[in-house]
Each structure stands twice: as structure tokens, then as C-alpha cells.
Amino acid sequence: MLTIWGRATSTNVQKVLWACDELGLAYKRIDIGGAFGGTDDPSYRTKNPNGLIPTLEDDGFVLWESNAILRYLAAGDAQCRLLPADLNRRERANIDRWLDWQLVSLGLALRALFILLHRAGKLASEAEISTLILQLSDMSAATDSHWATFRSGSARTGGSLWACSGPSCRHSRPGMNGSAADQGFRTCAPSPFAEVRVSPRWHRARRRDRKRLWSGAGIHWERHRHAE
What we know:
Elements (H helix, E strand, L loop, with lengths): L1 E4 L5 H13 L3 E4 L11 H4 L9 E4 L2 E4 L1 H10 L13 H30 L7 H27 L7 H5 L15 H8 L5 H4 L3 H8 L2 H7 L4 H7 L1
Parallel strand pairs: 1-2
Antiparallel strand pairs: 1-3, 3-4
Helix pairs in contact: 1-3, 1-9, 4-5, 5-7
């Protein structure tokens, strides 16, 4: 059985859980990171020297970096459900491009906006918010264009799991209060993400152990459940 280290509220962990569900893989997940701590423990650092999550262990083989884990899981599937068996070099590069874009370009921009809106003791200015919203809007246009090509049938790679690899942009993040700034955050999400978010397996990956997780972190479950 696979072992996955990482709190279930991490989007990078969630996309690994989603891939496992898509492939029907059994796994054990261990809470670590965020409010759970543990990423600086020497025993964990021997597995992941970066002290980040997720980390995967498969029969003694240890792998970190979420996108590397996704590729590893997909490559081990004999049915090729996530990666076609006959991909040529350019098709594989197209998938890798969007995986890395989600993690680095989109992910970091969303993280910056989230931190800006929720930083303690200082309200974000309209100029700061507008700068990031404009950046994310440009990214949204790029993904819209890609998805239009994919849905038209002219592209055979870059499907839902790979183009989004666990949507980092949630329109209703817990803690959003409906302010103008929050509305601006919601507008940044590429429209095709709404299609991916209806996947039952994605919802299972997002919600698994959430009540137990949030209770352990001292966060009120009911408030977050109704915010989703």
C-alpha cells in the first residue's frame, strides 16, 4: 500500500489523492504540515529534505514533489488511464508544460493573492489586489484558449487532471467574507475549472478527513462546511 505524508487541506496533497482515486490505488495518509507540524522532524527530513508536502512512499521508494508523484502514479498504471501509452515527445511535453505551469505560475500567483487578502494586521490595498487580479486574468485567458482546443478534439493531451492537476483556485475558499476583494479573487478562476470541480473523485480527495483534520487544527467544521 502507498503511504502519503501531507495534510488533506493542501492542494498539492489533494491532487495526489485525486490521482490515487482515479486509479483505484489504496493508500495510507499521514497528517503532517501546517497546523500538524512535523515537517522539520529529522525522520521526515530524511524522506523529504525540503521539509514540504506531499511525500510518497511505495514499497521502500520515496518520492517528493507533487507533479513528480502524479507522473509516477500515471506511469505505473497498466491501463494508461491518465497517460496514453503512445504519447510522442511533443504530446508528453505539452502535458508537462501545463503541470509545471499550474504549480509554478498559477499556483504561486494564487498563493500570493490569498496571503495578501488574509495577512494579519494589514489590509490589502486596491492597487495590490488589482495587480494580482490582472496577472491571474491573463493566466485565465491562456487556460481558456487551451481548453477550447482540447474540447474541440484537436488536442489529445492536457485533459482535466493534467491541465489543472488539482485546481488550486477555489471560488469559495474557507474564510472568504464576501468583500469586494473576495469577489475579485473569485473572478480570477479560469472558467473550465468549474467543469473539473464536479468530478466525484475530486470532491472525495478534497473532503476526505476534512472534519477530523479541521477539528484537530482547532478550526470550526460547520462554518467551513457551509462555506464550500
